[in-house]
Amino acid sequence: MPTLSLRADGPLTGRVTVPGDKSISHRALMLGALAIGETVIDGLLEGEDVHATAAALRAMGADIVREKPVASMAGGRWRVSGVGGLLQPATALDMGNSGTSTRLLMGLIASHPITATFIGDASLSARPMGRVTVPLGLMGASFAAAPGGRLPLTMIGRCPAVALRYALPVASAQVKSAVLLAGLNTPGRTVVVEREATRDHSERMLRGFGADITIEDTPQGRAIGVLGEAELKPQAIVVPGDISSAAFPIVAALIVAGSRVELTGVGINPTRDGLLRVLAMMGADIVVTNRREVGGEPVADLVVTASSLTGIEVAPEIAPAMIDEFPVLFVAAAFAHGATTMRGIAELRVKESDRIAVMAAGLTACGVRVEELPDGLIVHGGGGDPVPGGATVAARLDHRIAMSFAVLGLGARAAITVDDASPIATSFPGFVALMASLGAYCPV
Ligand code: S3P
Q1: Is-contact 352 97, C-beta < 8 A?
Q2: Is any ligand 1 atom within 6 A of the Cβ of residue 103?
Q3: Residue 324 a catalytic site member
Q4: Span 352-407, pLDDT tens digits
Q5: Which of 18, 233, 308, 372 could form a disulfide with 210, with the two C-beta atoms 3.0–4.6 Å apart?
Q6: Rounded to two decimals, what is the model's pTM?
């Protein structure tokens, strides 16, 4: 297992572009595969999770090719030629570490006459799938899963499936998207109602591809409908930079004294920008400039300057807009004056790892005082002093845990070693090179 340790002897400085948004990349490939004709995608995230989606779509009939090698961090140009539907795959679909690939593809397959088996790594095989198999089962698909409704899992799609109105029991864009994608090939209008707004990339992109999408505010929440038997039109898509990846250099710049880092082309969709809002409340100096729209998504450049942070109580309602950024927010909180309290984030326990327990263990090992709650964490900040560090921490097959502790190491007295850096390639290939371009280094 390749270990990772990052250090900084002085301020982090420079201007960088983070790789393309993972959520948007998955969706661009999937909708491109369903449209008849050629979709062109610029800036696709070339991480393992997105490759897993591409491989599965190829196995179901789509032609997906990378046009030419592009040296930039921002990814390459990809062409997706869809055949208007999905074909029976010949072998099991290996989803690797990717929950988004698994759950969204289950949605796509649910309304096709296809039998598919999903397999994945140890992390993915421990994650709950009942949250998608329940609504997709109501639409007519059937499933045989490992105990606890987990992978390996075989599903049999139903065509025609039955349209559904489904109230999300958990705030999850993956579940919302799975049902909407199943609805694409289902007669009638399929509706998902969400009490708390989750990332809306599926709705935006479905509209862009020409699907009939309705969005209505109801007393139960936001009702998002898709009219089935849709004929999607191929698109040209530009993928914005992933704010979930930008989060790591952002927090690094905030905690390393004297730093000033510019990030260009970062997606700032209001259903994803919770970290920026919370850090601002903690006193972070983050200037959002050059706001524009790219591929139907709001994008901006960010200028981040090292800041003195103050602990706050993070409102649980903001959690869906920053659900993947909590591990690195815990790191920022370790440098704040006073305590930062985060509750209402039990969903973190069913991510690529139990992110509350794994972060609590690693932070404690590095000398940060934390209190673990059933649905959250309290981090007692050191008032801006370096954390003691000097520990080896477990990444538990979780890319965001690995990167969070690498960033913590930049502000530690003694080096912190992440036991396994390999999961970083799922979402942020080039993470170490990008951090090095800002002045961080790996001690030998
Ligand atoms: C994602 C939704 C979120 C997020 C994941 C990507 C998506 O998961 O954690 O990394 O692309 O829809 P949940 O829907 O389970 O909250």
Answers
A1: yes
A2: no
A3: yes
A4: 999 999 999 999 999 999 999 999 999 999 999 999 999 999 999 999 999 999 99
A5: 233
A6: 0.98
